[in-house]
Amino acid sequence: MQSLKIGVNEKLYIKDPESSTLGKNIVEQSILMIDEMGFENFTFKKLGVKISSNESSIYRYFENKHKLLLYLATWYWGWVEYRMVFATNGISDPVKKLEKAIEVLTQNVEEDSSITHVNEVALNRLIINEYSKSYLVKEINNESKDGYFIICKRLVNRLSDMISAVDENYGYPVSLASTVLEGSLHQYFLKAHFPTLTNCNKKITPTDFFTDLIFRTLNQKVNG
User: Fold this and answer.
1) Cα separation of 92 and 54, whole Å?
2) What Gene3D superfamilies does the record point to (predicted)?
């Protein structure tokens, strides 16, 4: 993990923020600020004040805050993909492999201290609350064609392949896989803001819910 480098679409930034101390500081502080104040209230001007830098210096890295949000979301899904691949590597039993993948994709995020400029806990909260704002835009079709969401799509396909490995006759593996990715974020959002709209609570986690949902759907018993 010390040398982990998440591959982010170069079209999302003007200058790679990983290439300088200022760039990493922009990423670090933008995560914390958006998590605290929300995407609507976040501006490059406020970020410039926070990092004691000119607003114009931030524009040398990102065209606008929408591109910054896309960058953060892409980094997040790349990090999740790495963790899922690492956790499932070497598991030969397809049921156990799928179970582990669901766990990684839906579990509560803990901070990884080896990536010093990214607070993964704050980033996870940011994604839960703000991710939909990265794709609910008029430009979504063009942005998708430009590959902005390729890592998220790849992650869905990885999970879809694991679902098919458990039940090759199940007809909706991609739909089920994308439901897990989006649905886990939504369940955490409901748990935090609309607790009467979900069964997830301090005792029941989104991991419990999606593990039960998927294996019941596939008519499989969870290994345990």
Assistant:
1) 53
2) Tetracycline Repressor, domain 2
Gap between the Cα atoms of 98 and 224, Å rounded: 13
Candidates 220, 166, 159, 165; CA nearest to 184 is 159
Of 142, 22, 133, 144, the C-alpha closest to 72 is 133
Question: How far apart are alpha carbons 87 and 103 in whole angstroms?
Answer: 10
pLDDT in tens, 164-204: 999 999 999 999 999 999 999 999 999 999 999 999 999 99
Total residues found in the chain within this entry: 224
Q: Per residue in 74-106, pLDDT tens?
A: 999 999 999 999 999 999 999 999 999 999 999
Cα–Cα distance, 72 to 106 (Å, whole number): 18
For domain 74-218, is the CATH number 1.10.357? yes
* Tokens 């901070």, residue located: 111
> What is the three-state SS of 13-43?
CCCCHHHCHHHHHHHHHHHHHHHHHCCCCCC
d(CA 223, CA 206): 18
